[in-house]
Amino acid sequence: MSENTKRAVIILSGGLDSTTCMGLAKEAGYDLFPISFDYGQRHKIEIENAKQVAEHYGVAARHKIIKLDFLRDFGGSALTDDSIDVPNVMEGAEVEEIPVTYVPGRNLLFLSIATSYAEVTGSQAIYIGVNALDYSGYPDCRPEFIHKVEEVIALATKVGVEGKGITIETPLISWTKAKIVEEGLKIGVPYELTTSCYNGKAEACGECDSCRLRLKGFEEAGSKDPIAYLP
Q1: Which residue ranges make up the annotated binding site for Zn(2+)?
Q2: Where is Zn(2+) bound in this sequence (predicted)?
Q3: Do 49 and 12 contact (CB within 8 A), yes or no?
Q4: Residue 200 has pLDDT above 60, yes or no
């Protein structure tokens, strides 16, 4: 690989948003270095989806899967604590508090580890599929958070001190789910290989808030979601 090659680390969950980021990074001319996290999530099946996505883009050999078991040990989230139920948020319901599906410190940890992988691979960018419209109560999906992490990367890394830097790319941050789907379909993102369901079954439940947002996005984009749902 030439030193002039554009490289990007993709935080790849195996879900719709992160897979769209993978496609957008490829379209932008980056050589892809996906990284996924096994943090004891209820929907651990998404790791298998991430593997399939990496295979689809021809970068399975570079795909890193990092275990963060302590997040399940900590609990405190419906995604890592079996004593907390995954909520089914009805369309139109107003969420006044941070949702119980928020995982404390997750994106801060993910970006820190992705930064390490970016330095080692000589990547100039990290792509993460955060969105400030969906789940606007998540503190680690806000533009302010991303900007502060970029500042820390500039101070805490060799490439930052040398003035080369690593940017955090958040192309979906202000997009609706429908726009995400529309743009992804234009560039051939393999949505059939993805999952969004928080309940982690082979067939998506169609009832959790993540499933509802996904289905609504496909409907508003005028397309049919290609994954299987429970009858």
Answers
A1: 197, 205, 208, 211
A2: 197, 205, 208, 211
A3: no
A4: yes
Question: What is the secondary structure of 126-144 as a DSSP string?
Answer: EE----SSTTTT-GGGSHH
Spatial separation of the C-alpha atoms in residues 143 and 212, rounded to whole Å? 24
Structure tokens at 214: 């996904």
- Encode pLDDT of 142-198 as tens digits: 999 999 999 999 999 999 999 999 999 999 999 999 999 999 999 999 999 999 999
Q: Which residue ranges are tagged as binding site for ATP?
A: 12-22
* CB-CB neighbours of 210 under 10 Å: 24
Structure tokens at 193: 């290989």
What DSSP state is assigned to residue 127? Answer: E
Classify the phi-psi angles of 36: left when phi > 0, otherwise alpha if psi is within -120 to 50, otherwise beta.
beta
Q: Which two tokens stand for residue 149?
A: 């992490």
The predicted model scores a pTM of 0.94
Binding-site sequence positions = 12-22, 197, 205, 208, 211
- The rounded distance, in Å, linking the Cα atoms of 139 and 103 is 10
